[in-house]
Amino acid sequence: MLSFFSNQIDRQKAVSKEEDTLNDLERSEGSHFPGDDYRPSDRKNWMADLTVEKLTLNKIVWPGTHDSATNEIGIPLISRPLAECQTLSIYEQLVLGTRVLDVRVQEDRQICHGILTSYDVDVVIDDVIRFLSETHSEIVILEVRTEYGHKDPPAFETYLVDKLGQYLIQQDDNLFNKPVSEILPKRVICIWKPRESPKPSRGGLLWNSDYLKDNWIDTDLPWTKFQSNLKHLSEQQPISSRRFFYRVENTVTPKADNPVVWVKPVTDRIRKHARLFISQCVSKGCGDKLQILSTDFIEGDFVDACVGLTHARIEGKV
Asked: Region Disordered: start and end of each range (predicted)?
């Protein structure tokens, strides 16, 4: 028993030390980067405001959400704090400026996070369609995957095409250098990642897992994750020559050997340092490699930071 409590104390000390390291870095080097003072006049239509004729896909710093559809996961005040990564609905996230969604499903098409479930995936699709109907130039990356430990929903590829067909952007390796104006009126890049079913074919209406990559590590230590994100990003090709989307997740994950296991206080250890991460990317020569940046519990300032760097790229400042 004494060993257990000793380990818990040591883990808390390790977390505190890493939080101090990030705070010290922000105080000493700041979190400034080209475009950091830019604020979109309308987050709901921020792509349109940047001029779609100038905005190519590979210039966009895409604000994304991690476990996007968990706002009603589990039982309130009991299991929900263990799995909820967003409090806003999909529609509310899109209106706020989110443009990359991470959606997990199980065999019956219910949204899930591990063993906990919430609503049917129809709720997600309907929210996306509602947003698309209210805007004209915003492009959304919708990643749908079968959650780890679960089976694929039957005929799910057909379901996605039937529901989103009129909006789907066909997979095309040459798309990344095209301006948004040449891609419209199609609006959705839908990436379907089954666990056992055949993955979507190249050139089809759905994109497969080859086109959205990341280097996720399972840790609750913020400086460890921050450094890992920078390292893996530095190893990527510049966006000008990349033919897939690369995601960095500015998140950390609760661990069972730490006394704090609710998602919000754990992920807040790194979530507040999104601007610092962008600043470090630019200062370390990775400013031309950052593409998708995802977060838990998205807020407007996170969106503004991503849009600001996007604006700077259009203006040739990065």
From this structure: 15-39
CB 121 within 8 A of CB 162: no
Q: Is 212 left (phi over 0), alpha (psi -120 to 50) or beta?
A: beta
Query: Whole domain around residue 96: which residue ranges?
Result: 13-315
**Would you say residue 43 lies in a domain?**
yes
Rounded Cα–Cα distance for residues 230 and 237 (Å)? 13
Residue 122: φ, ψ to 5°: -55, -35
**134 to 130, 137, 303: CA distances (angstroms):** 7, 10, 19
Lowest mean pLDDT among 70-74, 186-190, 238-242, 258-262: 258-262
Domain count, the chain: 1
Task: Quick: pLDDT tens for 37-81.
Answer: 999 999 999 999 999 999 999 999 999 999 999 999 999 999 999
Q: Is residue 130 part of a domain?
A: yes
Q: Is residue 3 part of a domain?
A: no
pLDDT at 5: 67
140-146/100-105 β-pairing: parallel
